[in-house]
């Protein structure tokens, strides 16, 4: 029989105003197992905890029931308090008489009655509690960063600088991500590649960083501290060790001129050869062969690149390679893309080459871009005189079919940036921005936008564009409304730039599934806590960096990347992790070996082994379930799937739950 | 510089305020005692001027219904002061008409009992500069 | 027993199984937002809706509960990824079976309630209590005995 | 039958198997019982006729642990149960030699009793190879019944006469399905809740908790039955608990949900004649309707519907109120 102490908290008047605390104490005093019951103003306070510790010692308590606020609030506190007095922390149960009683009921008598019942249930449960011990699992001191954009780069650098080894897996042939496509960055207007390229080089040269470019995560197993990850290194068809990055192969590839292979990096605004580096500053400076388009791979003929390569690095026989690496922590920095605009026929994106997205505009304005930085219309290569920007294309759009319900956050600022850069280069360009709201929270952000209006006289009109109609003369007719002046507007434009909504990289869903990291309706990764744990996934050991978690600009991405790195470092700095002791347990004498539990276990924590058992004096070899305690997260799915009742959950056992049911229904 | 641009520059010069600074917050319109009389609301003045729709502004009732009470000028968070903008517009019109918009002889005809003396004085001061 | 004028004072006994991560937190939020619901509801904390064995529900009914509600994370949001999907199937079959043996529909309910849905939690519990009140005392499941 | 006996003897003789499981004559012509056969003389009592309804697959759980292979006679429907046991790793296939035996429907002596046939001395026409009517020689004279009219209800809704797993098949089968499997379930679903409750109460109140249904059920093969262990109980005490008494059949039905092959043994053995299969069949019908057709035991690789899911499964609230008029 347990010796249970019951402690009822007043929580000032939070509980005591609606629950007759003294009466609760009197009524639970004679419950089975209870040897001590008392109340106190604030149980969680230093003095309250002291009271508990004293009682444990004086009455030699073996179990505690604290009637107080939600266990989500102070269960940890009271467990620590029990431990201080030498009691196993898992011999504590909390009856939630604040959030689930005093705060929601008005009638004192009713609330008191309910508080007593909740206390009884907790007492009944504690009677069946057993001391549990947290397990320990070792930590592999190596981190994986999925995604090699600015978020992944920054996270990797910060972790590596702290002295831990980091691997970056990037599916494209080069790291750099979206930022490498940009021209200038707001609000300072410094050149994106000028600030990014040194970081890319640093990553490449860092002794603690290993780069897996043109690679993808294939399989993830394990758990916090001990992940096993299969990485598929796709065949580049170029031996990275031999390649000097001279670029001869790309220059001589016959498909460079006649191939019509749109460059992904330049968003299809120009073509690339079949053997290519995405951009000049690519890291690593090793080209890849796009086997789907390469003549050699299609017909077996050509082979120009292999012949021309001075270092004989081209290797047509190269195969995909799978490497398995152990990691302690994984950071998801898979970034974003913009949405497909097919559903927005009204903006004529697919009809006119002069309707472009903002990323395409970045490429058009970039000195290394397809036009050498000269802004021109893709239709006739003339410089546009009247440019219309349309904001919120697909953002803040409730129709799931077409767009995204959220604000993409960065469009207002980059549009102001684009407008000013254009005005800087070609001052007599007329720029009109149609917006729903201009959103510029951030240091020096509103000032930046106001500069576009006040200094550059960019014409901001509140009102969304209804339609863009390509005209026979090559111009675009923009139909919009000026809501503040209450007028419909029909204006001609030479170019229309769409601020297309951003969305998480489409590949993230697959990755999140592999990691069992939760994801929201918009495919953004979910934080463990939106406010207090913003860079952690609810799945232990998985961290979030950059746009994968939600829309954000470069400075925010870099700060979040650093924050994620700190969390990773904090994890890797530990030699061992404590594991949750509330794990599943298999009673080998009851187990049928039917594998039902293994089928429902989300963590692969259950295996089957042939073990020797003694059952009623009979020695037998049986196939029974074995729970890997380090993998088990304690969800209990196996317990309710188990047909024989062999599987049970520590801390929430079948008997504990039924006894709570009984106590409540008494 | 086009004729229009010259006019806008002139408005900026006369009023001493910059229409581009307007954020369309609407505080002026919210403060305007003549709101119900205005066909173009004070917050729209700046955009009319930026767009160059001066003729429309001049021909509106609003340009001439402004009492010059200075509420909008006092309260504008961006120092755009729509009252000054519309006043500048009126001045441009007055200047176009030649120096003397109002002759002293015309005054008795315009007088009504409700007309405050002060208005006459200020009208002379304003339109006969 | 249907409700009638005489047993107006009937106060049902309702057991709510709430998963620790979403619904229990949702109940806490209902509490901290002071969104009241009847004291007839007593919550049992379980790690996951997938932990709820049909035995627990039958047990509650047999011991005198008038209604049992299971709350879990929204499908797709399970803290353990998949627990609520299994719970959904299990409960669908159980509820259908209870209906089949003649237990009134509505004595059992599953509701997906996130940690942010305090208002939904409170509303659900109010609705559920009303429903159980209208159904009256649970006689059938307490007395579905094989031995008379 | 003789072919079967010969073959079994042969298998034992050539050492393929050590023993066989089949049926031996009972004390009455209509109650043969499952038995082990090892020596040639054991086969003197071997019988396989229309009254051999017992599903022998469950016996293989223990039999397959014995030294040497065991031959087992399985009717087409029994092979589903065997497959399900393989799925759950409950039987050792390697140690089993399955003889699929032909079936033209199994018989229910209660059907004869209902016709007023009593004092039976012997029965003719129930042989597995037979084709005609069944003739009862009773102390009141000779009585006749059509074979079909004497058949167990379950045979009228037979899953089919193909053995889903076997080493060899002996004997011909004849299709007996002539009714809809879910007809009875649908009939109950169409009643009012009050009628349904009254129906089940009247049926279940007959239960004497003899555990025959549990003991015969091939899906109820746990090493230790949940009803015999105290893990679910809050007090450490014997299993005489009102909860288990009252909820026994629902708990048992849920226990086998998604695993029950609908072999119908529970109803066949119930001494009180409770139609227990109506619980199992309701689950099968619901599973088919909610999650797509599923026949437990058909494919030992197939995932059970209860350990599977799709992202847009039916919500529990939509699982009820479907059958109400």
Topology:
The complex is a heterotetramer of chains A (666), B (129), C (148) and D (325).
Chain A: E1 4-9, H1 21-28, E2 34-40, H2 46-59, E3 63-68, H3 71-84, E4 92-96, H4 98-102, H5 108-128, E5 135-138, E6 142-146, H6 150-161, E7 165-170, E8 184-185, E9 190-191, H7 192-205, E10 209-213, E11 215-223, E12 226-233, H8 248-252, H9 255-258, E13 275-276, E14 288-289, H10 295-299, H11 304-308, E15 321-327, E16 329-332, E17 336-338, E18 355-357, H12 358-365, E19 386-393, H13 411-425, E20 430-435, H14 445-454, E21 459-462, E22 467-470, E23 476-482, E24 487-493, E25 495-500, E26 502-504, H15 508-515, E27 542-544, H16 554-572, E28 576-579, E29 584-586, H17 596-600, E30 606-615, E31 618-627, H18 637-641, E32 647-649, H19 654-664
Helix pairs in contact in A: 1-5, 2-3, 5-19, 6-7, 6-16, 12-13, 13-14
Chain C: E1 14-19, H1 23-32, E2 41-46, H2 54-62, E3 67-72, H3 83-100, E4 108-112, H4 118-135
Parallel strand pairs in C: 1-2, 1-3, 3-4
Chain D: H1 2-13, E1 19-24, E2 33-37, H2 60-63, E3 70-74, H3 76-87, E4 96-101, H4 109-114, E5 120-124, E6 134-138, E7 141-145, H5 153-156, E8 168-170, H6 183-189, H7 193-204, H8 212-216, H9 242-256, H10 265-269, H11 277-291, H12 316-319
Parallel strand pairs in D: 1-3, 3-4, 4-8
Antiparallel strand pairs in D: 1-2, 5-6, 6-7
């Amino acid at each position: 029989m347990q010796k249970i102490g019951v402690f009822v908290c007043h929580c000032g008047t939070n509980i005591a105003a609606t629950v007759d605390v003294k009466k609760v104490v009197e009524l639970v005093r004679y419950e089975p197992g209870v040897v001590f019951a008392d109340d106190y103003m604030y149980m969680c306070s230093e003095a309250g905890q002291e009271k508990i510790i004293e009682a444990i010692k004086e009455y030699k308590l073996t179990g505690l029931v604290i009637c107080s606020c939600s266990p989500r609030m102070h269960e940890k506190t009271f467990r620590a308090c029990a431990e201080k007095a030498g009691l196993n922390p898992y011999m504590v149960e909390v009856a939630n008489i604040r959030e689930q009683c005093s705060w929601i009921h008005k009638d004192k008598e009713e609330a008191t009655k309910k508080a007593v019942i909740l206390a009884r249930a907790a007492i009944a449960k504690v009677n069946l509690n057993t001391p549990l011990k947290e397990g320990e699992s070792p930590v592999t001191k190596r981190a994986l960063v999925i995604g090699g954009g600015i978020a992944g780069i920054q996270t990797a650098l910060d972790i590596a600088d702290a002295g831990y080894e980091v691997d970056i897996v990037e599916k494209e042939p080069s790291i750099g991500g979206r930022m490498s496509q940009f021209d200038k960055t707001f609000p300072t207007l410094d050149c994106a590649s000028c600030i990014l390229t040194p970081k890319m080089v640093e990553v490449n040269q860092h002794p603690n960083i290993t780069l897996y470019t043109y690679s993808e995560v294939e399989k993830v197993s394990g758990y916090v501290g001990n992940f096993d990850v299969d990485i598929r290194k796709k065949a580049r068809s170029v031996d990275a060790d031999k390649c000097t990055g001279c670029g001869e192969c790309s220059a001589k590839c016959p498909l460079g001129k006649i191939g019509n292979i749109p460059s992904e990096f330049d968003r299809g605004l120009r073509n690339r050869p079949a053997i290519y580096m995405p951009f000049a500053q690519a890291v690593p400076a090793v080209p890849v062969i796009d086997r789907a388009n390469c003549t050699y791979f299609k017909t077996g003929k050509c082979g120009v690149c292999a012949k021309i390569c001075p270092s004989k690095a081209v290797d047509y026989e190269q195969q995909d390679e799978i490497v398995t690496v152990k990691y302690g922590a994984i950071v998801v920095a898979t970034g974003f893309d913009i949405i497909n605009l097919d559903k927005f026929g009204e903006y004529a994106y697919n009809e006119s080459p002069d309707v472009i997205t903002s990323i395409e505009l970045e490429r058009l304005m970039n000195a290394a871009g397809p036009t050498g930085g000269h802004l021109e219309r893709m239709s006739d290569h003339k410089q546009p005189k009247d440019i219309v920007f349309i904001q919120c294309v697909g953002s803040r759009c409730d129709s799931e079919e077409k767009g995204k319900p959220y604000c993409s956050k960065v469009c207002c600022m980059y549009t102001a940036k684009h407008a000013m850069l254009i005005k800087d280069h070609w001052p007599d360009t007329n720029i009109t921005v149609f917006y729903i709201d201009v959103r510029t929270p951030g240091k020096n952000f509103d000032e930046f936008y106001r500069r576009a209006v006040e200094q550059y006289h960019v014409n901001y009109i509140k009102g969304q564009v209804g339609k863009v109609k390509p005209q026979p003369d090559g111009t675009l007719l923009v139909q919009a409304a000026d809501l503040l002046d209450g007028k419909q507007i029909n204006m001609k434009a030479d170019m229309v730039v769409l601020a297309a909504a951003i969305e998480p990289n489409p590949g993230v869903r697959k990755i999140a599934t592999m990691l069992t990291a939760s994801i929201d309706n918009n495919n953004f990764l979910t934080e463990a806590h939106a406010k207090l744990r913003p860079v952690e996934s609810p799945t232990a050991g998985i961290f979030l960096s950059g746009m994968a978690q939600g829309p954000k600009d470069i400075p925010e991405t870099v700060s979040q990347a650093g924050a994620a790195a700190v969390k990773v470092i904090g994890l890797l700095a530990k030699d061992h992790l404590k594991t949750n002791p509330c794990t599943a347990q298999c009673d080998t004498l009851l187990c049928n070996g039917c594998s039902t539990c293994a089928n429902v276990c989300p963590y692969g924590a259950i295996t089957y082994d042939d073990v020797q058992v003694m059952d009623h004096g009979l020695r037998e070899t049986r196939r029974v379930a074995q729970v890997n305690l380090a993998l088990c997260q304690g969800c209990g799915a196996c317990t309710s799937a188990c047909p024989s009742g062999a599987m049970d959950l520590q801390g929430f056992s079948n008997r504990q739950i039924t006894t709570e049911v009984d106590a409540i229904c008494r | 510089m086009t004729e229009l641009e010259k006019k806008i520059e002139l408005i900026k010069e006369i009023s001493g305020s910059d229409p581009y600074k307007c954020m369309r917050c609407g505080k002026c319109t919210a403060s305007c005692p003549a709101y119900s009389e205005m066909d173009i609301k004070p917050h729209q003045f700046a955009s009319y001027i930026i767009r160059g729709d001066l003729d429309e502004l001049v021909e509106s009732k609003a340009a001439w219904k402004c009492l010059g009470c200075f509420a909008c000028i006092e309260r504008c968070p961006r120092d755009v002061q729509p009252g000054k903008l519309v006043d500048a517009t009126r001045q441009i019109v007055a200047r176009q008409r030649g120096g003397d918009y109002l002759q002293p002889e015309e005054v008795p005809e315009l007088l009504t009992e409700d007309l405050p003396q002060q208005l006459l004085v200020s009208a002379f001061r304003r339109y006969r500069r | 027993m249907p409700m009638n004028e005489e047993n107006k004072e009937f106060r049902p006994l309702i057991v709510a199984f709430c998963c620790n991560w979403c619904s229990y937190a949702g109940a806490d939020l209902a509490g901290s937002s002071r969104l009241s619901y009847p004291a007839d509801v007593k919550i049992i904390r379980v790690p996951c809706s997938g932990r709820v064995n049909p035995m627990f529900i039958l047990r509650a009914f047999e011991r005198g509960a008038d209604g049992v509600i299971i709350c879990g994370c929204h499908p797709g949001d399970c803290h353990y990824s998949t627990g609520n999907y299994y719970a959904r199937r299990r409960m669908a079959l159980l509820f259908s079976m209870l209906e089949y043996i003649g237990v009134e529909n509505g004595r059992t309910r599953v509701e997906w309630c996130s940690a942010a849905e305090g208002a939904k939690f409170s509303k659900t519990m109010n609705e559920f209590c009303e429903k159980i009140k209208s159904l009256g005392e649970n006689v059938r499941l307490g007395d579905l005995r094989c031995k008379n | 039958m003789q072919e079967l006996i010969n073959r079994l003897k042969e298998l034992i003789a050539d050492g393929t198997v050590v023993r066989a499981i089949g049926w031996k004559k009972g004390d009455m012509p209509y109650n043969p019982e499952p038995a082990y056969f090892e020596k040639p003389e054991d086969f003197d009592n071997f019988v396989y006729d229309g009254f051999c309804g017992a599903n022998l697959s469950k016996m293989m759980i223990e039999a397959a642990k014995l030294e040497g292979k065991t031959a087992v006679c399985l009717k087409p429907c029994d092979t589903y149960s065997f497959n399900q046991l393989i799925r759950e790793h409950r039987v050792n296939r390697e140690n089993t030699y399955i003889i699929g035996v032909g079936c033209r429907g199994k018989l229910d002596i209660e059907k004869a009793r209902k016709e007023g046939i009593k004092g039976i001395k012997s029965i003719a026409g129930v042989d597995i190879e037979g084709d005609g009517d069944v003739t009862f020689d009773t102390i009141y004279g000779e009585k006749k019944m059509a074979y079909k009219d004497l058949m167990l209800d379950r045979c009228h809704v037979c899953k089919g006469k193909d053995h889903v797993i076997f080493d060899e098949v002996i004997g011909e089968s004849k299709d007996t399905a002539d009714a809809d499997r879910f007809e009875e379930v649908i009939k109950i679903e169409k009643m009012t809740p009050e009628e349904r409750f009254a129906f089940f109460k009247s049926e279940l109140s007959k239960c004497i908790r003899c555990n025959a249904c549990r003991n015969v059920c091939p899906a109820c093969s746990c090493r230790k039955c949940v009803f015999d262990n105290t893990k679910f109980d809050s007090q450490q005490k014997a299993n005489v608990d009102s909860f288990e008494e009252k909820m026994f059949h629902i708990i048992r039905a849920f226990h086998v949900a998604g695993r029950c092959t609908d072999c119908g043994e529970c109803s066949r053995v119930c001494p009180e004649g409770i139609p227990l299969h109506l619980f199992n069949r309701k689950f099968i019908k619901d599973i088919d309707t909610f999650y797509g057709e599923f026949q437990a035991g058909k494919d030992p690789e197939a995932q059970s519907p209860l350990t599977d899911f799709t992202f847009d499964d039916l919500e529990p609230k939509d699982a009820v109120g479907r059958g109400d008029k």
